[in-house]
Amino acid sequence: MVFVHLHCHFKGSFSDSALPLERTVKKAKECGHNAIAITDHGELSFVPEFQRKCRENGIKPIIGVEVYFVPDAKQCIKKKDNERYHLIFIAKNENGYKNLVRLVSKSWIENNFYGRRGLVDYKLLREHHKDLLCLTACFFNPISQIYFKNGISKGEDEFLKLREIFGDDLFLEVGRHFIKEEEESNEFLIKLSKKYNVPIILTNDVHYLEKEDWIKHDLIIKSRFGRITDFHVDSRDYWYKTTDEMKELGFPEEFLKNTLIVSDKCKEYDLPNEGDYDWVDFDVFPVEFEEIDEKEAEWVSNEVLGNIEKEIVEGIVKFWRRAKVIPERIIKCKEKILGEVVPLRITERVFTVQYLLSDLKNFGCSLSDDLNFLKNPDTLMWLGWALFRRNNFDKAERFFLNSISNGSDNPLNFYGIGIIKWKKEGNLKEAKEYFVKYLKMDSSSKRSKKVRKILDIISK
Ligand SMILES: [Zn+2]
Ligand SMILES: [Zn+2]
Q1: Average pLDDT per run of 10 along the chain, which is 460 residues long?
Q2: Which of 31, 79, 119, 390 could form a disulfide with 111 if both were Cys (CB 3.0 to 4.6 A apart)?
Q3: Do 196 and 93 share a domain, yes or no?
Q4: Where are the beta strands (DSSP E) in 185-337?
Q5: What's the 88 CA to ligand 1 centre distance in angstroms?
Q6: What domain range is 323 assigned to?
Q7: Do 122 and 206 have their domain in common?
Q8: How far is CA 129 from each of CA 88, 100, 123, 167, 442, rounded to the nearest angstrom?
């Protein structure tokens, strides 16, 4: 074995991946690749499933993420500067994984770029780089992009900043997708590699499994906003290549072999269990979330939850029937939920529903338009909370509002919006209005006491 793929986009790279998990892991095995990395765009949501499937097939899972990087996030947000770069971070061990979670979560919470993406910058990196490897990702990496814009010495400065943080754990990434800019990036990175003795690795920015699958990826990309756009994917070379196909790209064999150095630096570890997040040193969920978590089981009785899931699954099946095909994975989820084969825990249910929704999103439905089949106010509210959990406050708010306009009289909708207005937007006036509405509907529960306390705090 002389090579492993270290740059692969799976389902977590919403609207930018047509790479099927199970078949990819099987192909890795056939190719004699004994490890494979997941590097979704700014997301770790698909990691547990990825790890499980790799282990089932005797492939070593390497866990990473391709983040949106800017030198100074606060500055970027202030100036509404949409420019951003790509960098990959890979966890060497359990502690590294915890730092990945911190980086990704804090990017969304502290450096949220207008609800569109979370940004990682040098400040966050300096805090949370321990036990992480840094790979320079595609030619959108900061070193090459700043070199293109501002010349050699500025590009080199970016490289030196990263090397100062990561030392021996920095790897320069080259690839060949037959794009002019990429070749210029390769040339620059290879020069830096020689000058500073930093290893080069060859990757293929994998977005789909087989050569001919480019058309699926193209379709997903073109339809990701719920309508067909003329977005043009710059290459048709993003498939999971065999070692021979990688060799044919014409780089020194050393660049392939160096991928094994990265793989060897990564130890196997278990992901933290549910509830085992006491190492999280920041507000994952803005206040009182835990209380909601407990209450979830209470206000969503099994029967209600069952109906909610049924509506979602039936709606999704209906959607696919319109498209004249029901993918196997949808049938599996349907069986899982409607067949009641295995009673799922709430967290698994949330995961399954999110999986179904991301699947729809991958095929070009926007949550607001194409989920119009969701009419049940409970469904809408429940999804609101599922999104809230993932700090996706904009969408959560939309679901709460839809739930209310569909006739829900559940005060939790108002509570959720109140928290979002308060904690995320800092809009005390509107937060207050929603909390007051909440109290009108529920004035005697434990939560209402809490809401009064919050009102006291924000009224000061
Ligand atoms: Zn990239
Ligand atoms: Zn990529």
Answers
A1: 92 78 95 96 80 95 96 95 96 93 79 77 97 98 98 98 98 97 98 98 97 82 56 90 97 98 96 61 38 40 58 60 51 55 45 52 40 69 71 77 88 92 86 95 88 88
A2: 119
A3: yes
A4: 200-202
A5: 8
A6: 289-390
A7: yes
A8: 12, 8, 10, 11, 45
Instruction: Indicate if 210 and 347 belong to the same structural domain.
Output: no
Q: Is 174 helix (H, G, I), strand (E, B) or coil?
A: strand
Whether residues 140 and 106 share a domain: the answer is yes
Is 278 domain-assigned?
no
**Residue 402, domain member (yes or no):** no
d(CA 163, CA 157) in angstroms, rounded, equals: 10
Number of domains in the chain: 3
Separation of 87 CA from ligand 2 center, angstroms?
A: 9
326 alpha carbon – ligand 1 mean position (Å): 31
- Please indicate, yes or no, whether residues 95 and 235 belong to a single structural domain of this protein: yes
Compute the distance from residue 337 Cα to the ligand 2 centre, in Å. 33
Same domain, 59 and 165: yes
Ligand 1 center–CA 9 separation, angstroms: 10
* Ligand sitting nearest the alpha carbon of 185: 1
**DSSP letter string, 232-254:** --S-S--B---HHHHHTT---HH
What is the whole-number distance in angstroms between the Cα of residue 174 and the centre of ligand 2?
12
Decide if 356 is inside a domain.
yes
CATH at residue 53: 3.20.20.140
Cα of 248 vs centre of ligand 1, distance in Å, is: 22
C-alpha 143 – ligand 1 centre gap (Å): 13
Q: How far, in Å, is the centroid of ligand 2 from the Cα of 16? A: 9
428 and 295 belong to one structural domain: no
Residues within 5 Å of ion ligand 1, judged at the Cβ atom = 86, 137-138, 140
CA of 422 to the centre of ligand 2 (A): 35
For residue 205, give the ligand nearest its CA: 2
Give yes or no: residues 74 and 187 share one domain. yes
Task: Flag whether 276 is in a domain.
Answer: no
Provide the 8-state DSSP code for 193: H
Nearest one of 106, 76, 72 to 89, comparing CA atoms = 106
